[in-house]
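User: Structure please.
Assistant: Input sequence and predicted structure:
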Amino acid sequence: MKTFRLKACMTALLACLLTLGACGDDNDTTSQSGQPDNNQTVHAYDARLVGTWTSIISEGWEYSDDGVMLVHWKDLSALSTERWEYDGQGVEISHNTYTGDPEWETTYFGADGKYVDMNEDGERRNGTWEGDGGTLTLNYSGRTASYTYSFDGNTLIVDEKEYEGRTLVEREVIYYQRGTFNHQTNAIDPNGTYTPTDVPGPNGGEDNPTPAPTPVPEPAPSFLGTLPSLWKSYLITATDGTQTQTYQVAGPNDDEYMELEFRTGGQAILSAWTGVDDDDSAQGAVTRALMAKAVRHAARRASGTFESTMLNYQVSGYNIRLFNANAELPLVFDPSTQSIVMSIDERYGNVTVSINICFRQ
């Protein structure tokens, strides 16, 4: 969904922004000038920009020639993007959330004026940069592009605007944090660094980030067992206060089958079949409630696919808080059945249906 994915020339520029890292005091708002060394050119820069930065969050807009918004998208995480589309009158015609492989970009800004960037597709750019007074200028492959930048606490915000004549046609705001992308957690590792080298490689100078450190395994609550811990749905109950329906999940090919995998570092993966057709049977009622709340908020609907989404979790006693930026799902461990139970309430007309989804190892 990111604009830089649609235009190769912009990919390079945006990538550069990602690897800004800390070199010197983060609170230093003054420009720094390197001293000439062996007749080399002095490089002026805002010291706050220097170092390694990574972005997994951005937001973009696309406009018609007469200034009407046509598309608005927002990255919710490295795995999830929300997208709105509008007709030529500015009326919303669709709104979807997409999940997929992690999308990230990391950029290094050196105090010597060098920048190197790369993204999840292995694309790399090398060039030079200047940044001061809210303006960031990138030079690469014979191109020069300028952006505005600002800081919100420890977050770097880069604002890119594209015009046709005087008409704004595209805008993207990118949010960066210091560090590199951690493939184990699908999040930014604030301790990761990016060190350019001159070792020859297939792209010339091979500039590789230092590997993100392996997370130290955390002691797991006894009911989760040794992490990673995989739990599979096997029973679903639904009650409206007057009657209870019970559904036995047959196995991985069942439309109601779900998996929960708890990992170290407070990360969990929720997987479910999405895009199944509902009917008016008792099973259909369970399906609608389940999909409407749990899957819709935690996984992307797509026809007939078993999809996964990365979530966070916190454990307190027998209670587990499973959450992401959009929703929160309460879980409770039941010692009597050795099950983890996900509870959901869904309203149909004047009736509230309470759903319990039971998982076991």
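DSSP finds three helices and 26 strands in the chain.
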